[in-house]
Amino acid sequence: MKTKKDKRKNIIVICVEGDADELIFRRLLDHYQKEGWRCPGELKYHNANGFPNEAEIRSKLNQIQRIYSDKTLFFHTVLCEYDTDVFENGACRLPDWSKVRNSLERDFPYVNFCQIEVKTSIEDWMLNDLDGMLKALNLPKSTRPKGQTGQDKVKALFRRKNIVYDRHKGKTRIKPIIDKLDIGKIREARRKELREFEEVLGVNL
After folding, report:
1. Hey, what long-range contacts does 87-94 have (CB within 8 A, 24 or more apart)?
2. Which residues neighbour 113 within 8 Å (Cβ) at sequence distance 6 or greater?
3. Which band of pLDDT confidence, cut at 50, 70 and 90, is reported for residue 87?
4. Which of the chain's termini has less CB crowding within 10 Å, N or C?
């Protein structure tokens, strides 16, 4: 007979802005595990196709609770990942994360909540391995992406190969390229932004 302890389920929920973000974070977590990190829970991804606000996060947590209704459920970590560009240019106001954290804590059994501010966009992270991207796209190593923002530059590079880059709904087109990027190199370049996330997950590489 199974005991109550056997039914305990630890879940790590990763809420991201789009397809490109999800692909990057899946690769990042795979990288941690290949380097010896042991995941403290079952990973669940939620692609909000836009800013993953409190309503989006709540929706995902409720969905998971319904799936595991017969188990003692704990959300080991709830992550909200988002670009900083819309906040830097004043287009949106940054949420009061302390209020979000307290609100979620009242309604859900979780241990850690953290957010990752992707500066300035996930495309800027991708460009941390520009050599890898050029190689994946079969472009000359001397190619310099044109554009004002990271997203502009990535779109321009993809256009050179007649590939439409759609950060939110282009998973099948962009996955072969993102899969070839050096995720270790990207992680090293973004250690500061990843610090809190890695701390709560016990990543020590």
Report:
1. 88/120, 92/51
2. 77, 78, 79, 80, 100, 101, 104, 105
3. very high
4. N
64 and 141 fall within a common domain: no
**Residue numbers of the domain that contains 131:** 123-178
CA angle 177, 137, 167 (to 5 degrees): 45
- Same domain for 22 and 69, yes or no, is yes
Higher pLDDT, 165 or 70: 165
Residues 41 and 69 in one domain: yes
Least confident piece of the model among 52-56, 76-80, 90-94, 118-122: 90-94
